[in-house]
Amino acid sequence: MVKAKEDPYIWATGRRKTAVARVRLRAGGTGKIMVNKRELGEYFTTRREGDRVIAPLRSVGAEKTFDVFVNAHGGGLASQSGAILMGIARALLKANPEHEKVLRDGRFLTRDARQKERKKYGQRGARRGFQFSKR
């Protein structure tokens, strides 16, 4: 019987709107964060998204103890950052279940279920109708 090789990564998935992020955490790292094979600051040009991604690591004090590798697709940059945030939080929870209270209090483990409302037939958008002309 051949024993499977031990995986050095902690895997987790995060979702937000239509964005999906597959997150890998490697313990004993230097704090490097790669998103789609690019540095965090290069991928998220605005500070808001970058800070949002780092937030769960900051809350548990693990900024410099893990390397984070992310594959993100779908949605825009804002929803991708939300998906990455959730993925990192879930991976941290797998790494150390004692962090659950801190992550829950920071609302990092709560899935934001809001989705875009579909366009209805006979209307211009989800709720907006066509312009009505009396004459």
Architecture overview:
The protein is α+β, with helices and mostly antiparallel strands and 135 residues long. It has one domain: Ribosomal Protein S5, domain 2, CATH 3.30.230. 32% of the residues lie in helices and 22% in strands. It contains 4 helices and 5 strands, in the order ββββααβαα. It has a 5-stranded mixed beta sheet with strand order 1-2-5-3-4. A hairpin with a 2-residue loop joins β3 and β4. The protein starts with 8 loop residues before the first strand and ends in a 30-residue tail after the last helix.
Keyword list:
single chain, 135 residues, alpha+beta, Ribosomal Protein S5, domain 2, five-stranded mixed β-sheet, 32% helix, elongated
How many distinct folded domains?
1
Q: Which strands sit side by side, in order, in the main sheet?
A: 1-2-5-3-4
Radius of gyration computed on alpha carbons:
19 Å
Shape: elongated
Please give the count of helices: 4
Report the portion of residues in β strands: 15-25%
Provide the residue-averaged pLDDT.
Answer: 93
